[in-house]
Each structure stands twice: as C-alpha cells, then as structure tokens.
User: Fold ABC transporter permease from Acidovorax cavernicola.
Amino acid sequence: MESYALLLGSTLSAGTVLAIAALGLLINEKAGVVNLGAEGMMLCAAIAGFATVVITHNPWLGFLAGMAAGALLAAFFGVLVIWLNTNQYATGLALSLFGVGFSAFAGISFVQAKLPESTPFAIPVLADIPLAGPALFRHHPMVYVAVLLTIGLIWFLYRTRAGLVLRSVGESPESAHALGYPVRRIRFMAVIAGGALCGLAGAYLSTVYTPLWVEGMVAGRGWIALALTTFATWRPIRVLLGAYLFGGVSMLGFHLQSSGVDVPSQFLSMAQYIAPIVVLALISRNPAFIRINMPASMGKPFYPGS
Assistant:
C-alpha cells in the first residue's frame, strides 16, 4: 500500500507541471488564440527561474522570474499575431524553436549549478495520516496552487462578467467588437496571462520537480499541455484531471520498475507521449463533439472594421 501512496504522490507532482501550463493555454484558446510556443516559453522560464534561485537563494523569486519570462515571450507572440496578424500556428512554432535555442545558450553556465537545500513541505497533522499523508499532504505548495488555479479559473470563466466577455471574444469577436469590447486588447491580456502560467510551470519544473538545469529538460511537456486542452474539451476541471492522468502514466513505469517488474527504459521514455496520442485519436473519432466545445474563433485572426 505504501508503494501505491508513493505512486499517487508522484502522480500529483508530475501532473502539476502539465496542469499549470495547460490552464495557461486554455485561457489563450478561450480568447481565440492558439499558442504553439508553450515548449519554448517553458524552457526559457525554466532557465530564468533556475538562474534566479541560484543567484538569490529565493525560490519564490524564481517563480516570479519564470512567470516574467513566460509573459514577456507571450507578449511578443501576442503583438505579432494580434496586431500584425501573422499566422498563429507558424508564429507559435517559431517561438517554440526560439525558446529551445535561447534557453540552451543562456543556460550553458548553469548546467553544473546546484540549488540551495530546500525544506520539505508538509501540512501539519494531515501529513501524519497513514498512507494518505505521504500521498496527498507532503507536496510543495505549488501542487495545491494548481488545484486552486483550476477552481479560480472555473469561477472566473463561468461566474464573472470578465470571464463571459473573454469567452464571447473567443466565440464571436465580431459580435464582441460590435458591443464595444476591445477584442485585441482582451486577447492580448489573455495571451500574457497564459504565458505567465506556462512560465510558472517551467520554473516549477526546474526549481522543484527536477531541481537542476539541463538543456531541453521540458522534454515535450509543452506539447502535452497543448494536447491536454483538446483532451479536456476546453474545461478547466478536465484539464486538471487529464494532467494527473498523463502524469500518472509517466510515473507508472518507474513504479513498476521499483516493484521488480522488468520494464524497458525505452518504454518509460515514450509512455507519457503515447497516452496523449491515443486519447486524442479516440476523441477525434467524434469531430462533432470537439466542434461543439471548441471556441468558434480559435486560431482565426480578427480584423477590426472588416
């Protein structure tokens, strides 16, 4: 039973990276913008957060640096696709490639760097509960922040006027513009917010989940987060559950290995990528279901006055 508790605990930690990044991309897509640059933003945020913690010894400044890096890259992306009307998909891919190269260059001097020792986190009393304590209540605060972000985003999107306006921009920007809403500005703010969350995910990855810097360490998680939004049919709670599902799949192989089951290392490397592909293939069998839930203007440029 203890091994299963450890598996659950590692699932929550692994899923947190995906959940935070996917929630950011969900905000983008709810506003009608597709950003394929999550991988690059997360890598730049990872090195920004890691370098900040190495220099300042303050992990919370590392999170802020990661969010700032993600938001800055997202702002650049937003200017290109929202005001200059460049192709969203091509621009996102360019941003991803830029992030991969720039992070590798910026992180050369931090490859051998070590973070300061961190204090283990635990929720008093609850952490001492047998089995449930190690599985649920001994995680870094960012694991619980991911849950709170999901709840907050649900409330924002479906219980506030600002959330309604954001969704209306994603569904029909022409109608929102006719009602006097600044569509481009709203989309730009959504893109920056999404980039900040992707940056937070990248900083968490390099400073908490795997506390080191290695070139390309995001290892496709940005693409998995992007797939998560479709898997979740653009609903925050499903994003969180899907992140834990994919995180659990990536941890399952290591759990089997530690239990004495002979699992090829190649299988461990590809397991977390196979799961999203299989799930998306199954969902794609019903395109009508995807169209009903997908923001109608997603990926489409908006030209005021056209």
The chain is about 70% helix and 0% strand. The chain has one domain: 2-112+134-293. The longest helix spans residues 2-30.
